[in-house]
Amino acid sequence: MxxxxxxxxxxxxxxxxSGILVVFGITGYIVNNGFALGVDFQAGLIQEVKIAPTAFxxxxxxxxxxxxxxxxxxIYIIVSGFGVESRSYQFSFSEYVTIGSLxxxxxxxxxxxxxxLSANDGVSTQDLVFSSQSTSLLSSFSSYTVHxxxxxxxxIDISEVRSAMAGFSxxxxxxxxGQPSDRHFMIRVxxxxxxxxxxxxxxxxxESYFRAYYGSGCIAVLRxxxxxxxxxxxxxxxxxxxxxxxxxxxxxYSTIRFKLQYAVGAVIAIMYDVLIIVAFMVWTRMEFTTxxxxxxxxxxxxxxxxxxxxxxxxxxxxxxxxxRPFIEILDISLTGILGRTIITTATTMLAVLALFIFTTGxxxxxxxxxxxxxxxxVFTTLFIVSGFVNFWQNKKVIREKKKQLAKA
Length: 408
Hints:
With 408 residues, this protein is α+β, with helices and mostly antiparallel strands.
């Protein structure tokens, strides 16, 4: 029989350390005014943007009406008007591979179309970025702007975008979409009083800030939506319901399969893991998004699995070593699952570590939260759950002794 590690002597120090960490987390939540809420949990205007310079702009000088549309591989100019037969002109990016050739073809086929190049005419048409904010109706008074983003463009970090937004009059949250080289961001402007901000007003202010930081015509608005406070509140409520339901189900399952003392220990362990992740998020000011909820629920499942395996081993050893003290059985059980816990945690951490290294934005935060949660889960299984079960058992023995003395 292999040597038994005396985990039980660390139960009390671990409980003290856990209490300090919990108080530290609650203090951080109060001091920092809660979470740094991401774009998913704030009411307001959402702008999905790409920071991309202007490729060319279009103006229409004809007497007819003209509009522009596009898809992944083509741009279309539609000319129509009263008493005029509607005509559609298609310009394929596979045929016109550069914006220079595209501009020449447009000018040749539509004499009233004014095409102004702002970029090198050798820019590939495959790199064009179309803004949903530009009106599709062409006129001589306003231009339709098309942007571009080349693969070799310098990446832009999310911290730089936040710096560009410094001094903004509204509360702004920025989220990275994709890699820094994609220059793709989601910006939410918080609306504390629903309906106070308008899309046009905010877009103009955003453009002025980006123009001052990156230059004129640098922002392509890919999507613009308004999310009401009711939706964001419902999302927050659902997150609380999910975590509460998880705790309830773990309590019921552990009570049915084992005993009440094990079930309560499992719930305390889960709550501790949640508090550790919360403490980490509030002190590091990590954005709290829907991926954060996914990370918390993943850790709850992972920690519960470790705890259930430990309970199974305790129940098995109670039958094998029924003449030994309960605390010794806990040490034997923890020693038995130690190797399995280290191997499974280490291999899972390798995959999560790769996710942390090779991703950015909210996915990187998700991986970091998993790493913290898995470390906490191992600590919880080895010391918090086992320590609580031992504490409950000691109280139970004391109560039985008092009953026997009362009968005597």
